[in-house]
Amino acid sequence: MHTTNPSYRNLDDEGKLVLRVALAALLLFHGISKLSGGIGFITGMLQGMGLPALFGYGVYVGEVVAPLLILVGLFTRPAALVVLINMVVAVLLAHTAQFFTLNETGGWALELQGMYFAAALAVALLGAGRYSLGGAGGRFN
Predict the structure, then answer these.
(1) String of b and e for 99-119 (b: at least 16 CB within 10 Å)?
(2) Which of 30, 115, 24 lies closest to 70 in space, CA to CA?
(3) What is the pTM of this model?
């Protein structure tokens, strides 16, 4: 909405910061859990699907490295794309049976993964904004 009110202030950069911090901080909890508890269950699922267990280490990129980059606003768009890929892989690997189901409270069973996906897509489209190490004009921000 456009306004001619001189007191109106564009808060796009602040909104981008809130979105980045929320996405990165919440996703980091999953990454920290995997750092402390290991990824054996992921490598096991991959092997069960005939894929190399080595691919499981990609979860550290998607749930630790990429969120840290998003958080500080460095290579933000590519990092957000990594999170998008991570969410697609997580759904395909562990949640396909839940795709068309509801949870016990009536919400979509994959609402968490869906929200991470949507937030990462928004960050990839919007960029980091000026409150970032890469700055608003940064090449990948």
Answers:
(1) eeeeeeeeeebbebbeebbeb
(2) 24
(3) 0.87
